[in-house]
Amino acid sequence: MSKVVESLKYSETHEWVKVEGDIAVIGVTDYAQKEMGEITYVDCPDVDDEVEKGSEFGALESVKAASDLFSPVSGTVTEVNEQVVDDPKLVNDDAFENWIIKVQMSDPSELNDLMDAQSYKSFIKE
Amino acid sequence: MKYYDKLIFEISKPGRKGYSLPDVCTKCQGTDAIPAALRRDKAPALPQVSEPDAVRHYTNLSQMNFGVDTGFYPLGSCTMKYNPKINEEIAAMPAFAGLHPCQKGLKGVDAVYEGMDRALSAITGMKHFTFKPCAGAHGELTGLMIIREYHMSRGDYKRTRIIVPDSAHGTNPASAAVCGLDVVVVKSNAQGLVDVEELKPLLDDTIAGIMMTNPNTLGLFEKDIRQIASLVHEAGGLLYYDGANMNPLIGTVRPGDMGFDVMHLNLHKSFSTPHGGGGPGSGPVGVCEKLVPFLGVNVSGFNGNFGVILRAYAYILMLGRENVKMCGKLATLNANYIKESLKDLYKLPIESVCKHEFVFDGLINDGACEGKEGASTLDVAKRLLDFGYHAPTIYFPLLFHQAIMIEPTETESKETIDGFIEVMREIAAEAARDPDILHSAPHTTPISRPDETTAARNPILKYTEA
Amino acid sequence: MAGFNYFPHTDQDIQSMLNRIGVNSLDQLYADVPADCLYQGQYDLPEAMTEQQVRDYFEGLAALNPRLKVFAGAGAYDHYTPAVIPYLTQRSEFITAYTPYQCEISQGTLRYIFEYQSMICALTGMDVSNASMYDGPTAAAEAMRMMVAQAKKKNTVLVSATLLPQVTGVIQTYAKYAGITIKEIEASQGQTSKDSLEALIAQGDVAGAIVPSINRFGIIENLEGMAQALHADKALLTVYCDPSALAVLKTPAQWESDIAVGDGQPLGIPLCYGGPYVGFMACREEYMRKLPGRIVGQTTDKEGRRAFVLTLQAREQHIRREKATSNICSNESLMALWVTVYLSLMGPDGMKQVNDLCYQRAHYLYAKLLETGKFQEAFAGAPFLKEFVLKPLVPAAQIQKKLADAGFFGALETPEGYVSFCATEKRSYQEIDELVKALAL
C-alpha cells in the first residue's frame, strides 16, 4: 500500500505539490518511487529555468527504466534539492520528505486542477 | 569459465615494452621540435607490459566470455547464427585489408560491392542498396532520411510524422527522432498484429510513412501487410522494413513483394558476420526503383564497413541459390519446435504459428507461495547461464510484463535444441519446487549477479591508480 | 536434401520436428503468409560454391586490386599492426560473442571495454569515454547533437573549414534532418580562424563548435582561447583528433574542450578500404549522462568481487525510445579491442616512438619533395606531424599516375588544388627515396 499525505495536491503523473505562499514545493509520490524501483539518478532543471504546467522538467532513472517528471504548475524554478541529486536513494527512502524542486508559481489557480489526497488515493487504486 | 581479476593497468611496470619498432633517428628532430604550446604536458597513463603479458591477459579475459562457438544463444531479435571461418580468412587478405579508402578503380573491390548489391536485391526484392550504414540503427536512420528526401523532392514538406507499432524495436522510434520525425504509435491487436482499424485514422497528409518489422517482434507474420501497404501508399506515405527480423524470410518471402519501399539488413544477423561483442555490424539499405535517386545519403566516413561486407558476401556465395531457400525455413522450424515443446510450462500469450522467434510471458507456475516471491523472467534467464546457455532476450517486447523472447537459428542442431528444451523444463520444475534456486542464480559463472544500482548511482567508468 | 555444411538438420530431424509441431511440411510453417507474398521465382544468385571455390574467387578479386604502398592519410593512416592484435581479436570467445548484456558471462568483453574507456580518457585527458561509435565522422555528428541537447534552446553548431571533408559531410547530413543550423568557421593560413569563430559566436544561437586538433592540411592547430570564447557564451567545444597523435600533442582537455571525438583507426586498425573502424567519444564528467552509446562501469557482485556491467542505460534507445540521447545501438566493440591491445603493447613510450618515427619520415619526405622542384610550400612553417599538403606545379593527376606506376598511393588532391602526403612509421627511407625518384623522372 503506497503512502498518500493528506494536506498535499497531486497530479495524474504522480507528482505532489505542497503550497507555501506562492511557492510550490514539488516531489514525486510514494507510489511513483515504488513503480520505479531503486532510483539511480534524478535529472533536474537549473534554478531560474521556466517550467510549464504539464510539461517535462526532469526525469527519474533506475537501472532498467526512465520516467519523465512533469510540472504540476507553471512558473520559475527557485530552488533544486541538491541532496536528492547527490543521493537519489533519498527519494526511495521517503518520497514525501525529499522534495525535488521549488517553483515560484505564475498562476496559482492552476492548483485547482490538481487532485486532493482522497482523489489521488482512488486514482492509484484504478 | 574462471574468474580472473586483473586489469591491464595492474600488470603494468615501468620499463616494460610490448612493441617492436625501428630506431628513431638520433641526428634528426622528432616530435620535441613541435612548439611546446602544441605538445601535451605529460605522457598518457597507458600500461607498460611485455608482449607475453598482454597475450596472457587478454586470453584470460576471453575465457570469461560466452560466444556462438562456445554455446547456444536463444536470443530473440538478435539472430546469433554460426560465423563461418572462411569469411574471416577472406576479410584478412592483405589485398583487401591493406587498401586505403580513397583508392579508386579497384576492380576487385567494385566486384564485391556490385555482387553484394545484386545478391541482396535478389533476396529482398529491392532495386539497389547503399553500403554506407555501419549498423542496423544506422541503416534505419539512413532509410528514414531517404524517405524524407523523397517527400521533399516532391515539395511535400509537411510529412514529418512516422508511424511505429508499439511492438517495434527501440531503435525505430529513436532513429525517427534523430531524423527529425515525430513518432505516432499504432497499437497491436489481440493477435499481436498491427491493428488495421487503428492505423486507418492515422493516415493523413503529414505521415511520411510507417516502420514495420515483419515478422514482428512477437515472431508473428503481419498477414495484413499487403492491405497496410496499399493504405499507406494511397495516403502518400512510404513503407520502411526493419530488417532485424529478416532471417525467417530469407529464401521464402521478399520485403519488396510485400510492398516495402525501403529497408535495411543487419549483415551481422541474417548474413552470418560475427557480432564481435557488440559490433562492428553493417546495415546496408535497399530501396525500390523510385527511391534509387536518393540512395546517396552520406552517413559515414568512407565506404561502410567493407570488412563486414566481404564476410557476408563470402557467406552468400557459399550458400548459393538453392541453400538460400532453406535458411529461413530451418530457423522457423527450430523456433516452432521449441515453442511447442515448452508451452505447457511457459505462458504463451498468443497461440499461433511463429516465424524465427516467439515470446513467452513468464512461467505458468513461478513457485510463488506465502512469504516467497515467484521466479521472474530475469531469474529464468540467469539460471540458464548455470546450464551453459546464453539467456534469451528478456522484458522485450514491452507488450508483456514477463517477456521471454526466444530465437534459435538454422545453424542449431536438433540435439542442441533438445538440450535447451530439457534445461528450460528443468528450470520450470525448479521454480515450482523452490524459486529461491532461481533467485540466487547464476551460481557457476565467473561472477554472480552484480550490483547494477550502485554502478549507476556512483559511476566508475575508468581505471584510476589505487 | 543435398545438405549444407552450415545446416545441421538431417531429413529425419526435420521430419520428427515437424511431427512435434503438428504440421506436414516446412512450407506449412508459412501458411499464415498470404500467397502473393511468397516468392515463387528463382533467386538471382550464383550456384553454391565450395569453400575452396570461394577462396579462389576472392583471391581472384584480390589480384585485381593493385598493391600500392600508402603515402596517403586524409583520415585513414597506414600504421603497423602488431601480429598479436589479429591473433587475440580472432579468439572466438571475443569475436563470436554478443553485446555484453548478460554480464555474468561477458566479463571478458566488459573488462576490455573498461580498459578501452580508460585509455581513451588517458589519451584525450577527458573524464568519461563511451564504449565506442561507428567511426570518427559519426562520432562528430553525435557530438553536434549532444551540444545542441545540452544548450537546450540554441540550435547552431559551428564547424571549422579545416575539418576533414568526410567529417563535415556526415555532420551536415545529421544536422539537415535534425533541423540544426551549421555555420562554417573560416580558415586563415590553413588554420581555424579565431576571429571568424568569435564573429560567429557574436551572431548568437551558438550551441557549440567542432574544430580539429590536426586538420585536413596536416597542420597541428593552436586552439588557444577557443574554449574560453565559447564558454563565455555558454557554448561548448568539441575537438576532433587523431588519437595516435594525442600521445604527444596537447590534449582536448588541455585546450579546455568539453567533448573529444575522432577515429580510432590510427591505433593499429588496418585500412581495409574504410572500415570497420571505431569512433571514439569522450567528455567532461558533467556531460556524462548526455553521452550517447553504451558505457561500461565498475561495480561488485554479490560476493563483493570486482565486476563490470553496462551502465547508465536509461540514456539508451532500448529504454527511452524516441527520447534517447541517440538511436545508436551497436558499437564497434571488437575494434575497440584492437585499439586496447594496440595501446597495451605500445604503452606511453611506444606511442612516443611511433610519433617520432612518423615525424621524421614525413619531414624527410617533405624536404625531398620540395627538392624535386615540382612543388611549392603551401603553408610554410606551419607545424605538422605525419601528413602535409604542398602546392603542385604539375597537375595532380599526373603526379598520382606516376606514383601509381611506381607502386605508391599518395598526392590526394584537396579542393584548393593542394596535394597531400602522409608518411607513417611503416614507410622506410628507401621507399621515400624511391617515391621521390619516381616523381623526379
How would you describe this structure to a colleague?
The complex is a heterotrimer of chains A (126), B (466) and C (441). By secondary structure, chain A is α+β, with helices and mostly antiparallel strands. Chain A has helices spanning 30-36, 82-86, 89-93, 117-125, and strands spanning 9-10, 15-20, 23-28, 39-43, 50-51, 56-62, 66-70, 75-80, 101-105. Chain A has one domain (9-107): OB fold (Dihydrolipoamide Acetyltransferase, E2P). In chain A, strand 1 (9-10) and strand 2 (15-20) form a beta hairpin. The radius of gyration of chain A is 13 Å and the shape is globular. Chain A starts with 8 loop residues before the first strand and ends with a helix. Chain B folds into three domains: 8-62, no CATH class; 85-320, Aspartate Aminotransferase, domain 2 (3-Layer(aba) Sandwich); 328-453, Aspartate Aminotransferase, domain 1. Chain B has helices at residues 51-62, 85-91, 94-97, 107-124, 136-153, 171-178, 196-199, 225-234, 255-258, 306-342, 377-386, 414-433, 436-439, 452-457; strands spanning 128-130, 161-165, 182-186, 207-212, 238-241, 262-264, 285-287, 358-361, 393-394, 403-406. In chain B, strand 2 (161-165), helix 6 (171-178) and strand 3 form a beta-alpha-beta unit. Chain B is globular. The mean pLDDT of chain B is 96. Chain C is an alpha/beta fold. Chain C has two domains: 69-80 and 347-440, Aspartate Aminotransferase, domain 1; 84-340, Type I PLP-dependent aspartate aminotransferase-like (Major domain) (Aspartate Aminotransferase, domain 2). The longest helix of chain C is centred in the C-terminal third of the chain and has 39 residues, at 333-371. The model of chain C has no long low-confidence stretch (mean pLDDT 97). Classes of the chains: A alpha+beta (126), B alpha/beta (466), C alpha/beta (441). Chains B and C meet through helix 1, helix 2, helix 3, helix 4 and helix 5 of B and helix 1, helix 2, helix 3, helix 4 and helix 5 of C.
